[in-house]
Amino acid sequence: MKVCSIGLRGMEGYRVQVEVKELPGMPSIVIVGLPDTSVKEAKERVIAALHAFGCDVMNQKLVIHLSPPERKKQSPMFDLAMAIGILKVKGKLEQPIPSHIAFLGSLSLDGTIQPVDGMLPAILAAKKLGFQQVYAPYDPTFPFQYLQHIDCVFVQTLDQVAQCLQGKQVLFSTNHLPPAIDPPQKTHRDFEHIIGHEDAKYALEVAAAGEHNVLMIGPPGCGKSLLAETFPTILPSLSDEAQLEVLSLYQLAGETKNDSSPPFRHPHHSASSVALIGGGTQPKPGEVSLAHRGVLFLDEMAEFTKKTLDMLRQPLETGKVTISRVSSTVTYPAHFILIGAMNPCPCGYFGSKKRYCICSPKQIHAYRQRISGPIYDRIDILLSLQAVDLTKKHQQLERSETIRRRVEAARFKQYERYGEEITNGRVPIGVLLAKSPLTKRQQQLLQHWAATNDWSNRVQTKIIRLARTIADLAEAEDITDEALWKAMAFRRIKEGRQERNMGC
Predict the structure, then answer these.
(1) CATH of domain 2-176
(2) Contact at 8 Å (CB) between 495 and 344?
(3) How far apart are CA 233 and CA 201, in angstroms?
(4) Residue ranges per domain, the chain?
(5) Is residue 499 very low, low, confident or very high in pLDDT (cuts 50, 70, 90)?
(6) What is the pTM of this model?
(7) Between the N and C ends of the chain, which has fewer C-beta atoms within 10 Å?
């Protein structure tokens, strides 16, 4: 008897065929096909669940093969498929089991079906693999409003599965769900509450519109963390596809997320490289993957170890992270906006107009060198902040909702231009230049400033991307000279002396 289930390798799902056969010999159950400990223990759970169902399997030898045999099986998700295969072999189920049905779930000793980590990505993988129907345990944390296109039958006990297969009972199914409305997002943060920092707010608006990375440098208490924590309020809500992708990553990591807002991750600077990138004996997503489609905020960025920061090179460049272990190699998506914040020097007051810096040039240089040149190259916008003088009159403050509408309009222009949901910060440079070429004068201007400031080819590319986003926010069809000048200004930190020696 053959019953289908789903195995996971990172976010990638693959078809697992559970084959059950009765053989003469000593009564026993043998599981083959590279099962790990959680799968080997399934035979005790399945025996107890089948006994509660009224099926005795201790009078004959049963061999259960999990195919493909060359891939290690690492989840108790196959319990239900094993139990269904045994029931069919023992004649307890008369109806044939179609190959387009997948069974997912772990069994309790009383026959109750329980969800496990990775259930949501497995359900999504079943649709991609061509399964027409999925039997899975009910989980109240599932985003049912996004599963309308998947015929998923939610069951609670082994007896209910048997009744459904015999056509006697159809329980909770995604096909019978009314479309749900996502509740409005509530946050106590808003840009209208931040006084001053008009240039920084505009830079963050550009970053949100084109998905550009930002590094803020300024003295303690000048508002770096406040700006970064308010930044998600101007980001558009996630699409259904993106929301499912994010929720799948959170479920694999054993965490929860209850809304459609872009994720915001804020790891402490003492976090290890495994916590940031992901890993473990059975590799799980790290902070860079949990920030997928959202924001990764590294406060006190220079306090992270240099080795840990350099691990960000691959995800910042490719939008994914590959984790290799002896047991397996998995790839998780890591498409995020990096927001970094750091002090200008160890004491924090280099360049301050109100406090005296006690750091030597050598100390300042060593502090800045904690962030390597390749990481600086992958940052689009460099912001120098100063404390706000509250006694001065400031411009009228805009609400985050107003800024978010401009960001959404700019992103819509980018989606139309490229024919897919991709932004200026992520689109291949060849496509960007084909759709928005620079004039000969603009090319000469960029080359002149690149030579003057010793900018790498990557930095020049990022300046073109920034200019395209600035032009989109200004509703310009082509990259204007003004947009190019503003983009180049975002790469120069105005801190006065020793600027060239600080790695910026």
Answers:
(1) 3.30.230.10
(2) yes
(3) 12
(4) 2-176, 191-388+397-424, 428-496
(5) very low
(6) 0.87
(7) N
